[in-house]
Amino acid sequence: MKKKIITMLMAATMVSACLTACGGREGAAESAPAQAVEESAPAAPAADAADAAEPAAEETADAEASAGEGFEDGATIGVSLPWLGTQNWKEAETMFKEQLEAAGYNPIVQAADQKVPQQQQQIESMIENGAKVIVVGPVDGTQLGAVLEQAKDAGIYVIGYDRLLENTTGVDGVVQFGSVKTGELQAQALLEGLAKVKGEGPYNIELFGGGPADPNAPNFFNGAMSVLQPKIDDGTLVVVSGQTDFTQCATVDWDNSKAQARMDSLLSGFYSDKDIHGVLSPNDGIARAIITSCENAGQQIPVVSGLDAENESVEWVWSGRQYSTVAKPTDALVAETIDIINSLKEGKGMPSTDVTVDNGVKDVAIYELPPVVVTKENAKEVFANDPGRMELLK
Ligand code: BGC
């Protein structure tokens, strides 16, 4: 069987803890779907044909159902981003504006400041303004169902950007970097860094997750835990606080200051007579907050993972202050999105893809790009075609 099925079940324990820790998701975690990512091999040998034909047939049907008449030059395209709090979203805002205009569209690009109602209103106004396509990076993956279905009813294509759109039929596809894979890379870098920088184990570590309303955050965490849990079980890693559930480790709204406050209290509560050796961090902003907290507490800097290859963290990786980050280049994700928009404009519908994710109510086509881990060792290779980031490696 040529399908790889990664099933990620949200732990039942999330529910009660989430009521206090999650914020933003507005109780939706209780109904959050189990996510199954199915990756089917593009060219299946004859013996697997029946098996492989199944998703392919679904995709074809999907693509046909959504292939329409296309739309005219100068069409309005809405882009709704969750916030501008990390470099990737700021880059996306600028790139979508510039590149959609350059491609002859009329872009409306807005960000929702982490507020669900604000994002719902922005999308409603994009519908009213006659958008042909709406691209959405959701504040909360589960809270846009009604407005997106309204968009679909109006004949508008809806593309999820960077984050999954959950529990809604109002989505035609999602462009994103592999989110489970991202977590695996973060955890592998953490293990590699510990062995390189901290000598022999066992290692004292702590775990951080991203914003619980963001569907990427549990995927990053679960991907990472698939690598770390066996090492916790065999005693190589010791989570001194004992906090290993996503809900205990999550950082509401991806707020760096909340992560720094949690790290401060972990250090004062559990590390007054211990060294901390490593920390799993879901992105670069939180990584820098964690490192700053450790420095303030007089600890040696632990090995810390990250995500986004933000300029400041690329400098920190280069100087050895942050061990790793993961590059998920915004220009590639925006380019992929605009390719899809062009296909829709030409009346060719959604391109076909091998990957689908069950969003709770439908199998959503995923246009997936590969994230790349970055350490000081490979930074020059990874950023060879990124003059801006190459500048930082001096
Ligand atoms: C994105 C990350 C980003 C985080 C916080 C995630 O969904 O994938 O790139 O750091 O949101 O904005």
Which ranges are low-confidence, i.e. pLDDT below 50, for 5 or more consecutive residues?
Answer: 1-65
Total domain units: 2
Let me know the CATH homologous superfamily of the largest domain.
Answer: Response regulator
- H-E string: EHEHEHEHEHEEHEHEHHEHEHEHEEEHH
Largest sheet: 9 strands, mixed
Binned, the helix content reads 40-55%
Name the average pLDDT: 87
Strand order across the largest sheet: 1-2-13-14-7-6-5-3-4
- The rounded Rg comes to 21 Å
- Ligands bound to this protein structure: beta-D-glucopyranose
Helix segment tally:
14
- Cα separation of the termini: 48 Å
Structural class: alpha/beta
CATH topology of the largest domain: Rossmann fold
Strand content: 15-25%
> In one word, what is the shape?
elongated
The CATH architecture category of the largest domain equals 3-Layer(aba) Sandwich
Indicate the CATH class of the largest domain.
Alpha Beta
How many β-strand stretches?
A: 15
Quick description:
By secondary structure, the chain is α/β, with parallel strands linked by helices. The protein has helices spanning 13-21, 49-66, 87-102, 116-128, 145-153, 179-197, 216-233, 246-249, 256-270, 284-296, 311-319, 330-345, 379-382, 387-390, and strands at residues 3-8, 35-40, 76-81, 106-111, 133-136, 157-161, 173-177, 203-207, 237-239, 278-280, 303-304, 324-327, 355-358, 363-369, 372-375. Helix 3 (87-102) packs parallel to helix 12, helix 4 runs parallel beside helix 5 (145-153) and helix 9 (256-270) packs parallel to helix 10 (284-296).
